Amino acid sequence: MLDARIIEALKNIVGAENIATERQDLLCYSYDATQMEYLPAAVVHPANAQEISSVLKLANQEGFPVFPRGAGSGFSGGALPKAGGIVLVTTRLNRILRVDTENLIAEVEPGVVTEQFQQAVEKLGLFYPPDPASLKFSTLGGNVAENAGGPRAVKYGCTKDFVMGLEVVLPTGAIIRTGGETYKGVVGYDLTKLLCGSEGTLGIITKIIFKLLPFPDAKKTMLTIFDSIDGAAKAVSAIIGGKIIPTTLEFMDHATLQCVERRFNLGIPPEGRAVLLIEVDGDRDLIEKQAQQIHDIIKPLGLVQFRAAKDNAESEQLWKVRRLVSPSLRDVNPDKYNEDIVVPRSKVPDVIRLIEQIQLRYDIPIVNFGHAGDGNIHVNIMVNKSLPGMEKKAHEAIREVFEAALSLGGTMSGEHGVGLSKAPFIELELSPEQIATMKAVKQALDPNNILNPGKMFPW
Amino acid sequence: MLDARIIEALKNIVGAENIATERQDLLCYSYDATQMEYLPAAVVHPANAQEISSVLKLANQEGFPVFPRGAGSGFSGGALPKAGGIVLVTTRLNRILRVDTENLIAEVEPGVVTEQFQQAVEKLGLFYPPDPASLKFSTLGGNVAENAGGPRAVKYGCTKDFVMGLEVVLPTGAIIRTGGETYKGVVGYDLTKLLCGSEGTLGIITKIIFKLLPFPDAKKTMLTIFDSIDGAAKAVSAIIGGKIIPTTLEFMDHATLQCVERRFNLGIPPEGRAVLLIEVDGDRDLIEKQAQQIHDIIKPLGLVQFRAAKDNAESEQLWKVRRLVSPSLRDVNPDKYNEDIVVPRSKVPDVIRLIEQIQLRYDIPIVNFGHAGDGNIHVNIMVNKSLPGMEKKAHEAIREVFEAALSLGGTMSGEHGVGLSKAPFIELELSPEQIATMKAVKQALDPNNILNPGKMFPW
Predict the structure, then answer these.
(1) Bridge partners, residue A99, by sequence
(2) Do residue A411 and residue B153 have CB atoms under 8 angstroms apart?
(3) Which of A313, A328, B114, B236 is the most exposed place for a label (fewest CB within 10 A)?
(4) Structural domain tally of chain A?
(5) Residue A320 belongs to what domain range?
(6) Do B204 and B264 fall into the same domain?
(7) Cβ separation B346–A245 shorter than 8 A
(8) Domain-embedded: residue B291
(9) Which residues form the FAD-binding PCMH-type domain (chains A, B) (predicted)?
(10) Cβ–Cβ under 8 Å, residues B149 and B158
């Protein structure tokens, strides 16, 4: 609960119409995609960096925590107000400020929805590649704060790779610019990349300068089915070794295929044990040549089926297999824990085998799919939470999944972040000295621990 | 001067044969490419991270500064021991630890020379694109510490874009790992990118994990001459707008052309006012098509000459124009200040015009060339330092060059870093709040200001 005096002060900053304190309003900002729930004391909707700065200065004076939030679509509880205090929503800062078609950069506010930005620049012949699954509703500010990835990361990189500069309100309320609008720049420390993926713990992003690319000429989609996971994994290395870096190299394991086939009957051959959905983009002639090369490269690796789309309609048809994964998972069990481990890409079969053992040991169905090109596997632990003891069992299985990834030189998360859900596990991955260094940075920028406390580190 | 007791302690750490205290030995480590000179009290050559850690712990106890140094080829005085203390040379850590051809990563020690690394991975069919001009002697540790660039940055990015993880000795002596060997990873703050370009002020790099690419199939070099700088600048935007991102887009202004032509007589037509040396790489068929497309795109922009190399020998011939720039500059004046401003690429003609005015105002020849694709221009202020007042005049002109770049949304440095030479100017570019934030990070990691003090910020 916040003091009435503080609520009054917040009203003075953002206007009475931009603050909510009623339970029914607070509920809307109490959850995210993790299904965890924490009720804030108030929700504020500031209009600009100045108002955000004033809120943070007040928070430092009065000692209440502030939890920044975009669309609340995160998979790690990063936007949840675990410690009470206020949720600060950035969705009113939702303008695309400019798109510079000559220098291929854009400046936006954090509340712009990812897909809307992509469509706006595409109209100008430009390309913003990062494509998190949430792109229809997630905001660019959240994408930057979490360093969102997506299928196209294997060729183009993640959100961070497109961020050239930021305007940020620091936890103390100071407003700074980081980076800039030049492709190179080595003056001072790289605060831009430090803030990307800092999960709203080091600053609230109020402007983003993105680098853009020319929109690719054409794309070519291929659905390829292998008789083993090893074959699919070898195909990934062989394609890249063959000097082709596909736009996407989406992987689905046998359990995933079975889910999709059971529900949608797409005609996946029964001997298919793993799928790679491959897409190349670029010059129209080159991609046709690459499609042929890819076929020749992967043919000896236990290829069961190879379908190449002739046009966009056929491409959409092939993507359907991937898109139907999520809707069909619920047939397995009503609840899922969606983790997103990463291993060096050659270790994908090893980690899948370790996960199969975990599955057997815990007797919980686990379905794996994801981005094979960068070794980023979405591990879906399917449970029925209403059964007694299931949640605890699932958490133990999750810990073992993380340990499996780490044992192969991997990481617990490639896209979702640590937030609340992985904070208890962070010591599995980071050494005490690494954590101490990160906490020293946090302490330096947020001496009163006002901004998004309780996230990332177990405080 | 260091206490004999401290020298003794250092000998115990690195071995008596790996420390130098005699003036003639110290002299070798007193300068870099800037021609500034500062004599250290001692030079140590540790063998590994543990020894470096012990040296830093001793430095904290005894309160002497430590200046890390690779090959000493920097252009900003970053490795110079301005405040006395010791120089710590990392060149004994010079092993390529492994090249993983399946996952396209390599792990190296910081003392490996850039070109030797490139050649080693090329033998395995792999590609490490960053190509600073110093690559024949600069070390990878220095490249990371300064975030070195080079002509190929326009397509491939700078050193930082290839660093996936580090082992670092922090200023306190703690040894930590940052990042890892996966292409994605969002667990904790991005200390890797924070350390890249931190100019040896936040840690001493002892291992680097690099991302590699398949070596490109083929390349095609084109020498293109324009009748105006505006034509050349428009060509850059038009080529990229035409969906072609060349590997290099090297620019030379009229003064540069005159220098080269005067000395080497390469047959550059007199109406030529600006050169773009363009290279594309990739698929053999595609690059031929792209060369034709480039020709068609730039033809209406005042193209005076277009020469496309038919093979590697002809390509070398065309690159000669660019390679002869440095040797021919000394004909203008014996001394040069080599700055490396960046502006958004469409602003290159504007900044060249502003520099022409500065040249006239100060009556100092200024020769501009560099990487037009990313707007990174090497501004060479040619002086004769032996003439009275010249140095002061040059410094005033340099300040105006920086101001010109900043007025166009640019930065003072795209590759060389701040070091000592730009520290007095950093407040032109960064706000007091930005500097305070960076200093807070430095203070958090280096509470006793032991590591490379006096660099980057005016302390």
Answers:
(1) A106
(2) no
(3) A313
(4) 4
(5) 218-327
(6) no
(7) no
(8) yes
(9) 36-215
(10) yes
